[in-house]
Each structure stands twice: as structure tokens, then as C-alpha cells.
Amino acid sequence: MSAKIIDGTLIAQQIMEELKPRIARLLEKGIVPGLSVIIMGEDPASLSYVKSKGKACERLGMRSETIMLSETTSQADLMTVISNLNANPKVHGILVQLPLPKHINEDAVLEVINPEKDVDGFSPINMGRLLAGGECFKPCTPNGVMELMARYDIDPAGKHAVIIGRSNIVGKPMAALLIQKKKGADATVTICHSRTKKMSAITKKADILISAIGNPGFVKADMVKKGAVVIDVGINRVEDKAAEKGYRLVGDVDFDAVKEVASAITPVPGGVGKTTIAMLMLNTVQAAENIPKL
After folding, report:
1. Are 80 and 146 contained in the same domain?
2. Which of 1, 33, 153, 252 could pair with 234 in a Cys bridge, judged by C-beta atoms 3.0 to 4.6 Å apart?
3. Among residues 97, 117, 254, 274, which one is catalytic?
4. Is 53 annotated as catalytic?
5. pTM of the predicted model as reported, rounded to 2 decimal places
């Protein structure tokens, strides 16, 4: 029997609908939730993602601004742009599209973003609060995964969750969320990465397997325990001459094979990616709501 498909598009729509009355209350107070996105260069995948964020803001009646910078923009000039956004009361959320060009110190960029406007949840302060279990903006993709599981009644408590990938964007914050002593978490967490030996032996023990490594079809059916929940965070472009754009999107998981082993699985596209944008909208609305508290 094939796995239940975890529909990220449906969950994202639910989250967006739930945000509408909150936004309406802000608008009544004269507050228009505003998101500013900075992108350096013209990477097609990043441009497409930024465009999706803008469209999501537009659908909700939020203010959206995309600041396009040359790939050769200096560190100092980028910092100035961020500082101006920090000081702008109409900007509630600031997002710097990653990855950045090699000449930019990414850590320094994330440190300069006001933590109260860091709707990506990547500033050291928000990451520290996340690890400590405090109130903070949670990184959108891992938090989207948590939301998907919650809304599909997948309880991680007492389960063995295995994460493939240790990035600051997904792997590490995903582990921090799952290990918290609270409802919807309480998992036992293992992280696998490029230096992990005998990875299949570890993934095969996972009750919940989350892959975020950006390697098309990496997770095979023989790496998955029967009845496991499989969350595919990977979004990879693979050449497909039959496709209109010359490529198609696939995940890290060999979907067709793994769905015959798993109890539940996210598709790509239509899975985690959709909820990532919805969680970004949620964080931006929360940032706008926090104004009276600041």
C-alpha cells in the first residue's frame, strides 16, 4: 500500500487563510505588514523563489519590496542597505536571499539584521533563542516541516528522527526544533552528513526521515524503514528535454520507490517548499504584530 501524500500546497493555503484576519486587524490600525528581500546577482532559482515571496505578499495585501543588487556589490554597501531597512518603520521583515557571493561575509550580514525583523530566523540571536527553546523567529523551512507534521497528526514525541544534512538553514535548526521539550517535538534526533559512515544503517532506523542535502534521488527505498514518515526538503533541477523549460524539479528522495515503503511522504514539488513561503508570511505578520511590544 502506497504512502499517504503530505500535501504542502493544501497546508500552505490553510496557513495563508488563517493569516488574513490577523492582517486585517493590523490594517485597521494603519499597519501594513512589510517584507523587504535583498538579492545579489541573478541566480535563476533564487530569482524564482524571491518572485514567489512577492506574489504571496501581494495575495495577502502585504507590502513587498525586492532590492536587486549586483553580484559585485561590496560588503559595506550591502551592510548600508540592511542598516537603512533596520531603521525603516515600514519594514517589518528583512530577508537576505542566500547563498551570497563568495566575497561577502555571510555571518557578518546575518549579524547586522535587527533580530526583531529577522523573519528568516538566521541571525545568531534568533538561532541562539531557538536552541534554548525561547521565543524567536524560527527558520521557515524547518518550521514548515513541523507545521506539516502537526497538521497531519504526525507526533515526533519519543520517535527517532534522522536528518540528512547539517546546514544552518535546515539541518541544524530542524534538529533544534525536534529536540525541544514541548508538544509537537520531544524526538530523539540523529544528524547524518557527508562524513557519516554506514548512513543507510542509521536512516533505516528512523521513524521520521528528513532529507535536506540537495542531491536528486539520494534516498532510496532500501534506506527507509517500513512505515517511516519521509520528509523531502530537497529541491533539485534535473535536465529533462521533454519538459517545457528543459528541466524538472525533483527532491532528494526517490519518490516512486520510497512511497511504497513509507507510511507518509512529501512530494516535490508540492511539499515542503510551499509551506516555507507560508511560514515566511507568518513570521512577517508576527513581526508587524510585535510593534506595540517593542
Report:
1. no
2. 252
3. 97
4. yes
5. 0.95
